[in-house]
Design brief:
Length: 429
Amino acid sequence: MTRRGQLAVGQRRVWIRDVALAARHEFPSAPREQPHELARFLAVCPPLAETFAAAARGHKPPPKVQRWFFVPTAMGKTPWPVPVLDDLADLRGLLGLSDGDLRWLSDTQQPEKTARDEALRNYRYRWAVKASAGMRLIEEPKPLLKHFQRVLLREILEKISGHRAAQGFCRGRSAVSYAADHAGQSVVLHVDLEDFFGSIAAGRVFGIFRQCGYPEPVAHVSTGLVTNTVPRATLSALPRPDRDAQLAVHNRLVQHLAHPHLPQGAPSSPAIANLAAFGLDRRLSALAVASGGIYSRYADDLAFSWPSARNDGPLDRFLTTIGLIVGEEGFRINPLKTSVRRAGERQQLAGLVVNAHPNLERKEYEVLKATLHNAARSGPSEQNRRQHSRFKEHLRGRIARVDQLSSTRGQRLLAAFARIDWGETGAGV
């Protein structure tokens, strides 16, 4: 290391050996997967800093690099069976991309933020009104980027172990399993997280790829492929709320979207969000167990339940502790959607009633049954009031949800569905 340092600056100086010894002490093994960490260390390394300080005082000319030595990056240790990607060439090979296309799609220089021509963007944007007031931005990646996000999801992200408390977007788990955890309990507490996807910044995503053992350049570009910065014109289209109470929420949303974050609408985002919330799930699970209860999470919905009534009123102290943990893990509670339901009240999670066992609310079942009956009698087009592009599949999905909860109800709805005449339009109705 000393010899290379001397060749690099064209000098034989004692400080070069001192820098090499300091680097060797800080990094016992060659940091092939973290060149930027090494660079940051060298930037503040005392022997090198003192050399530049002496040059600033006019004692000696500052050292200059006369010759560059390039060392390839390499994969570090990984706890998961993810593919080995030693450098960007390996990442390009995994995705089947050229260097130019990789740089464009990863948006590491953030041209998406300033591009005025929609054709130059990798996302399409749509503001949607939340059922509980407020707005959410759907950031849908265009087909090319969406394809490569799915490749990363399949080849890397799905191979990383998440926390068992996460019930959403996990194979073999669903809203039903999330609700089933809390069925028949005496007390059910529901807490909602504010702007769940948007609050997960690119730095946290970069950390996930680094935990996989990927060298910094690979982790940096992979992060760019699955995060996004919303164009200024799109953010300016978000109307300011009329009420001052909602202004702080509005400002936080804009702040999140204006910086690299996890886009709501990308196929890779749910899996990454679960991994980013691993620490949150671990700490809240421990908190629930210590209190004699159960914890699980479905996306941004947190649920706690206990088999017997608690004596701490509205769970004020418990909620305060939850708020502290949520804040320390980089999230924020939406206080307007916090609820406590006891056995004598309707206990509802993810749209399912859980007082005895997970079940669909009767009103929702009756509406679906009426929709199927009317579609069979007068045609499906008149019942497609929300203009679903694939109404047939939409109805089948809703029936499958009912069937998962009650096979008796599911069979009745399937029989009604079979009586619908879809004509030649089929799934496009």
